[in-house]
Structure prediction request, 116 residues.
Amino acid sequence: MIGMCFASEDGSGRRWLLPVALVAAWISHGCSIGATLVKETPNGGIVTYSFKNERGGPLLSPYRKRAFELMEKRCPQGYRLLREGEARGYGSGPGLQEGTEDEPIGRRWGIQFECK
Prediction:
């Protein structure tokens, strides 16, 4: 399920499932994966966007503005941020050889919000 951006591993060590689901959603919708509304709730949702620490981290990411635009579109009367932080499941993938350290595959920042 794409909306599980804050979910932890399923216990089997397969941290690749969520990134694969996001890529599939990106391909099927034909839009940028830079910022995405990954979960809609009756009164808000969760947006995620990519960032790099060496380029200013999540607060200076060029995709942060797009994430706020998605929240404004979802909540035309305004919104309130509930929490934000690094979205788990995006940080790393398994090493190429068994027993090696995880390799970074990109990082995403998540913002949970509710409409006013």
About this structure: The CA atoms of residues 8 and 88 lie 6 Å apart. The chain is about 20% helix and 30% strand. The first helix runs from residue 17 to 29. The first strand starts at residue 35 and ends at 41.
